Each structure stands twice: as structure tokens, then as C-alpha cells.
Amino acid sequence: ASGEEQSLRTPIVAVLGHVDHGKTSLLDRVRGSAVIEGEAGAITQHIGATAVPLETISEISGALVNPDDFDLPGLLFIDTPGHHSFSTLRARGGALADIAILVVDVNDGFQPQTLEAIDILKRTQTPFIVAANKVDTTPGWNPNENSPIQQSMEAQSDRAESRLNEALYEIIGQLSENDFSADMYWRVRDFQGNVGVVPVSAMTGEGVPDLLAVLMGLSQRYMKEAMAIDVTGPGAGTVLEVKDERGFGKTLDVVLYDGSVRTDDTIVVGGLNEPIVTQVRALLQPRPLAEIRTEKQFEKVPEVRAAAGVKIAAPDLDDAIAGAPVRVVRDQPVAEVVEEVQAE
Ligand code: GTP
Ligand code: MG
């Protein structure tokens, strides 16, 4: 890829859906991690962020993703909680998204937070695909570890295949009741007018190659222009969490969705009473494939470009709040940016 192409912004993919339908498990499958094991009762209680490089996507997707066909650097996944009490966090995750995966348990179908997620996606006009998860729980299912889903479906008994198809058509029907024309992803020609359904299993990895391939295809095809921003311009982001970090005091876990942030940059952060103006002391970047929520070995870097998860260390962050905007000040009067942050 040429220098210009490399400045394409990483698309942000929000993962939304009802509690326990398998959002974190799907991301664990992609990361090769076990974040779910650190969660009390396997309930996600915060928004997470994980950068997945194009090389990893093409490794997982095999023949379905040829890295030479893409000039996006990868995808930034945002994990959200499905438990009903975290609606603010779901809305926040949805607002950050360029594209989304709605995770639906094939056996459980649409549930209250599935509908809530659909409302968020409608409101924010975010294009999405549906991951019909847990296909391995279909009675009589014969697992094919990490296989593309059509191959795996063809290898099932007629009985298991038709049980799964029934469950999938149920989901397609529920989408249509909610005003979305939908079909199995391999039959969808126009992803702008139709929602693609991807049968997957976070447990066996079946369909995960397809899920990543569809996301990359959609991002490349429909969002390339939106991604062609100046990733070296002044950054903008959202605070996920305010956390103590040993040796740094209070720090901000941020999703940077625009531009860049550098060490020593002046930043404005939404605070309890008024915006905080401070200066970046250190930028701590999670390793590729690490979940920022659980990462322990951050790398200190001089600059971070959108989209990315980054921990920002700076003085005076005691009054910073989760959900607040973060803005980098460069070639603009500080007072102007403070006003903008106040208005957000
Ligand atoms: P919240 O974040 O709390 O909304 O839940 P979640 O959507 O992240 O679900 P999570 O990944 O925590 O999974 C919930 C349960 O379903 C766990 O016990 C997982 O092991 C199980 N699970 C997830 N995906 C699959 C799957 O594909 N097959 C099977 N059999 N179980 C799964
Ligand atoms: Mg979760």
C-alpha cells in the first residue's frame, strides 16, 4: 500500500447484543484470548476496545480475505455489555461505531437488549451485520473447528442443517419485523439495503472467517471515503474509563476516533464540573489484539492515530468522567476547544 493509503483510518466495529449471547466470546475467539474468564459471572460491565490488524484477519479468514485486496490497516472492535442495566454504555458504544455486529444467540432469538441495540443502530444510522451465534448448540451438530460456515453447514446431517436453517429464518423474520430486509450473507448482493446474517460459533470458530471477511468487505466497499481522513490532524475521542495506573496516577482509557494525539499535546477533557485542560504526559498503547480493559503491558509511544484504544496519562484528571469527550488542541485557541467540549 502507498503512503497515502496507509493514512486510512481504522474502522470502528461495535459489538452489540443481548446479555450472554456471546459478544465477548466472539472477540476472545478472534484475539485468541480468554477475557471472559476474568469477568464476574461472565457479565461484561465496561466498554472494551481491541485493535485487530489486517494480518490477523487474513490469517483467520484464510482464502476469504486476501490482504492485497485491502488497504485498511485492520479493525478496532468495541465490546459492549448486554446486561439491561448498562444501556448508557451500549448507546456510547453504538455512537462510536462506523459499523456494527449485532450478536444474536440462534436458539434464544431476539431479546429485549437485541431490540434496544437495533434502536441504537437505527438512531445512529450505523450499518450492521448479524452474527447468529452458538450454531454448535444445534442438536446433532458436528463441529468443524474454524471452518467457513457454508462448508460446515454442508457437512451436517440433513436434520441438523434444517434445524439450524429454521432458527436462522426465525432471526431473518425478526429483522424484517423491525424493518430490515435480511438474508444469509452469501445471498446478499447489496449490503447497503440488506442486512447479512452470518451463522457463527464463538465456541468452535465456525463462521468466524466469514464474519471477519464480511466486515472487511463492507468497510472497504462502503466506508473507504469516510475513512480517508487526516489521521495526523488534532485528535478527538471518548473516555471509556478513568483508572488509576501505577506510576501515573489517574489515567484515561480512550477510544480515539479521529486524528492523532501526541505526547505533550494539550488536551481538553470533559469533567465533573467543567472541562479540564491538561497536557499529555504519556501515551500507553495496548499491544495488538489486547483488550484495553485487561491489558497489563502497555507500550509507551510518542503518537497514536485513529482509530485506536489508548491510555492517556496526564495531570489533573481526578474530575474526568467516563463518556466525556477528549479533544487535542493544535493550531486552535484553547478557549474555542473548551467551548466545543462544553457543548458536546
Ligand atoms: P455480556 O457481555 O454480559 O452481555 O455477555 P456476552 O454477550 O459477552 O456473552 P459471553 O461471551 O460472556 O458468553 C456468555 C456464555 O455463552 C458463556 O458461558 C460462553 O461460554 C457461552 N458462549 C458464547 N458463545 C458460545 C458459542 O458459540 N457456543 C456455545 N456453546 N456457547 C457459547
Ligand atoms: Mg461480554
From TrEMBL:
What cellular component GO annotations does this protein have? cytoplasm
Report the superkingdom from the record. Answer: Archaea
UniProt KW keywords? GTP-binding, Initiation factor, Nucleotide-binding, Protein biosynthesis
Q: Tell me the residue numbers annotated for binding GTP.
A: 17-24, 79-83, 133-136
User: What sequence ranges are listed for the domain Tr-type G?
Assistant: 8-223
What one GO molecular function would you report for this record? GTP binding
Homology family: Belongs to the TRAFAC class translation factor GTPase superfamily. Classic translation factor GTPase family. IF-2 subfamily.
Record function comment: Function in general translation initiation by promoting the binding of the formylmethionine-tRNA to ribosomes. Seems to function along with eIF-2.
Q: What is the name attached to this protein's record?
A: Probable translation initiation factor IF-2
Gene name in the database record: infB
